[in-house]
Amino acid sequence: MRRVPEILEVESYRRLAERVVGARVARGWADGYLAKKLATPATWARAVKGLTVTGTDRRGKLLVLETDGPTLGVRFGMTGVLLLDTEAGIEGLFYGPHSFRAQWVRGGLEFADGRRLVVHDPRRLARLEVEPDLETLGPDALTLTRRQLDEALRTERGEGPAIKARLLDQSRIAGVGNLLADEALFRAGIDPRTPIGRLDEARRAALHRALRSTTRTLARRGGSHLGDHMAARLRGGLCPLDGEAMTTATIGGRTTYWCPRHQT
């Protein structure tokens, strides 16, 4: 199973990046894939040289490095991992192939003290940014209030999209990925196909509680892939709550698993 970095993994990358606060950038480099949102790979090298990292931040799955110049951003795609020298920001090292290859290091920062903060990405979907636009992202999932959730579930017309699709919309809630969405809906007892306009007050409250408990619990466990429903995410999987055969479909462009008995 491919496990994609979600908000919990990117938060672990942010904590790793905290260790370079105060360090001065000697040089930066990026291949054509990592620099795809920039004019050229040389844009990154020119933008970062001589900067001092002053802090870190995160909005959803976007890692932010604050400097004494421009703000720098890293998006990790499906298999991106942040490394400080050879130390990874998550236990177990790598999502995707679970192995390290030098040719999969796409770029990053080298500091005056010799340390390197790099992005390892086999699938070449990670991206570097200079002055990332945070206005395109919704409120952060780790601090999401009930009022913010209600706003994210507002419908423009009709009953709106399926709740799973809305949870994955980063412009509405930043940081919820496929696994966290399925786990939260599993805990809340909500069918992921349910149009958001059909969610009454009680189910919205249950969803908010589930999002909070899911992110907190899985952060303690060590990642978004350690949810209660994970053992059943396979052909013939049975719900760990009631033993019902799990149902699967593509919702919001992502493979989705749910229990048809207790998720209604």
What does this protein look like?
This protein has 264 residues and is α+β, with helices and mostly antiparallel strands. It has 2 domains: 7-135, N-terminal domain of MutM-like DNA repair proteins (Alpha-Beta Barrel); 138-258, Helicase, Ruva Protein, domain 3. The chain is 24% helix and 21% strand. It contains 6 helices and 11 strands. The protein has helices at 7-17, 41-48, 146-152, 163-168, 178-188, 201-221; strands spanning 25-30, 53-59, 62-67, 72-75, 81-84, 87-88, 105-111, 116-120, 127-130, 247-251, 254-258. A 5-stranded antiparallel sheet has the order 1-7-8-5-6. Strands 2-3-4-9 form a 4-stranded antiparallel sheet. A two-stranded antiparallel sheet has the order 10-11. The longest helix is centred in the last third of the chain and has 21 residues, at 201-221. It is elongated and about 55 Å long. It starts with 6 loop residues before the first helix and ends in a 6-residue tail after the last strand.
